[in-house]
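Why do we bother with a discrete structure alphabet at all? Because it lets us treat a fold like text: something you can write down, compare, and reason about line by line. To make this less abstract, here is a complete entry for Septum site-determining protein MinD. Read it the way you would read a sentence in a foreign language you are learning: slowly, and without expecting to understand everything at once.
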Amino acid sequence: MGKVILVSSGKGGTGKTMFSVNLGVILAQRGKRVMLMDLDMGLRNLDIYLGMENKVVYNIMDVISGICRIKKAMIKVDGFDTLYFMAASPRRDDRDITPLHMKILCDKLRKYFDYIIIDCPAGIGDMLDVAMAPADRVVIVTEPEAASLRDADVTERYLREKGIRDICFVINKVKAELMKAGLVPDLMTILNMFNSPVAGIIQDDDNIHISTNKGIPIVCKHGTYIEKNFQEIADKIIELV
């Protein structure tokens, strides 16, 4: 049975979707069958980061409401044999989606995929409750910025209050020169903030921003320090699942 990895964040703009996409690509490159699922209703971006925005016909809410079968909403990502994604609704949707809906959907997908990666809306609330229902592990993506770190801490506490124990962090957009100058929290301070382990850090790099705008995941370029770093982070997350 496949594993469900939920990627969350305390606030928007931390790089949660970028991380979800690149984690999925790495696992697919390893021969795993991967489903990327966008739950950010009305603010979907996963399709853009994959360069697949023109391929979306049906979305996850169409599946939940019975408009289409699951396979109709599953889109194979160009250039990959084992990577698929399911888009969020392009607008805020008044059709109900509950934790039970999500659990049933993921239980069906587990039969066909080794990993289901859920890109969850930022923050806490109803959609996080929905997304966490089937999760085997939660990855919280944050950055070394006071508001982001506080919101990540709040998110971790919320998850634990809801009974989620398998949690880890990824620290994105790290600028070593700012840390050395004492202008942003350093890694030791960040590590001591959280009860859950940190699976890795991602340096701030213009190439990551360029790749997301082009719809080409950064890890598709092999042999770079960024790709190696993502591989190591993926190893730690998979070991923990």
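What the structure line is telling us, in plain words: Strands lie at 3-8, 34-38, 75-76, 83-86, 115-119, 137-142, 167-174, 198-203. The mean pLDDT is 90.
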